[in-house]
């Protein structure tokens, strides 16, 4: 927790750990995008610069915090810039309290996920039943530190490339 606000990672990852390829997701999962929207709506979202730049537009209804080492980065209107993950999480926690929510959502990319995993309280992981090629991966989830609190198998819908298994992980005490 950061100042009483839960740090939540939201990610879709393939069996081989791949989460991205050339700045995009290596699949189309409409069902999972609906879950993603429901999980993140109204909550501050924290992401790296490349992840922000990969979005077609800002995610409505969610304050954006972008983490970048680039001191000259010109953020779009509605985006707060932080120069470390710790600063980004602190800003997001303040925004969460202002909005009356108790979670902030970390949305990637790979380096941000690696830094955030030791700080996270919850992981919303969509396990994609595929092994695509990619250049960005999610770190291993150590079973001695995490327990699965919920698991739902989701068959591929007509607008999904693959079946998925959604798991909610909770940090062990």
UniProtKB/TrEMBL annotation:
The keyword Cell division does not apply. Residues 6-171 form the DHFR domain. Its EC number is 1.5.1.3. One of its GO terms (molecular function) is dihydrofolate reductase activity. One of its GO terms (biological process) is dihydrofolate metabolic process. It catalyses: (6S)-5,6,7,8-tetrahydrofolate + NADP(+) = 7,8-dihydrofolate + NADPH + H(+). Key enzyme in folate metabolism. Catalyzes an essential reaction for de novo glycine and purine synthesis, and for DNA precursor synthesis. This is Dihydrofolate reductase. The lineage of its organism: Bacteria, Pseudomonadati, Pseudomonadota, Alphaproteobacteria, Hyphomicrobiales.
